[in-house]
Amino acid sequence: MTGLLKGVLTPMVVSLILGPISAQAFDPFKQAGIDQHPDAKIPLSSSFVDETGRDVSLDSLARGRPMLLVPLLHRCPNICGVTLSGLMDAIRSQPYQPGEDFTVVAMSIDPAETPSDAQQSMVELRKRYPNLALKVHALTGSRKAIAAVTQALGYRYAWDPEIGQYAHVAATAVVTPAGHLSHWLYGLAPTPDDLKLALTEAGQGQIGSWANQLLLLCYHYDPTTGQYSPIIWDALRIFAGVTAALLLGWLGLSVMRERRKEVERDG
């Protein structure tokens, strides 16, 4: 009886010990994230399938325009739908037009997803954005094609066996017409101004008015936050400091001249 209990309890004890260890082994905050790959070349020729079942490449969709590339899950029960909605809100609140000035691609990171999954996610998106969502290309692809793009972008994700889903972060990659990573816009909803500036910069002079190009001179992109911050105030502070230093120097020289004149008169 003792041997039987020992034989039963040993696997139980082992499972009790190893169970928590295996459960703690997966840390989505360590597995998922974005490594900075500034100006990385994206393989635009990689083959994917869109929501209609048509074979496409990123290059054929971009057609020489800047591209907003959103890595996501079409069957995501969590934030992916919110991410696309936030992007749609930002797009409709800035002047550039998807399909004309830039391309929007929602790319699945799960090779098990199908064009039907992509189509269903677009059906849901079009309920909220009936016209705008028609400009979004929803893609699925092979593990190799997905990995080629995400690795170039520095976009990390990992399968979580506990929930049966990929852990990933919400972000939008801004890609130049030549296929280079320009910026990341982090979070569920980029601001319209950040989106406009990112597209202006990624367009490399091909889109945006002279005023929009000039506006870039007054803004600084912070890769750690994925946002543009105005640097005009920093420039004004520097200018004010230089002006104050020059003024003090001029006053100092004026005082010295006056004293020298007084000495010369007294002498």
From TrEMBL:
Name recorded for this polypeptide: SCO family protein
Residues that span the membrane, as ranges: 235-255
Keywords of the record: Copper, Disulfide bond, Membrane, Metal-binding, Transmembrane, Transmembrane helix
Gene3D superfamilies: Glutaredoxin
SS bonds (residue pairs): C76-C80
UniProt binding sites for Cu cation: C76, C80, H168
Family, as annotated: Belongs to the SCO1/2 family.
Source organism of the structure: Rhizobium leguminosarum
GO terms, molecular function: metal ion binding
InterPro entries for the chain: SCO1/SenC, Thioredoxin-like_sf
Pfam families (alphabetical): SCO1-SenC
Alphabetized SUPFAM superfamilies for the sequence: Thioredoxin-like (SSF52833)
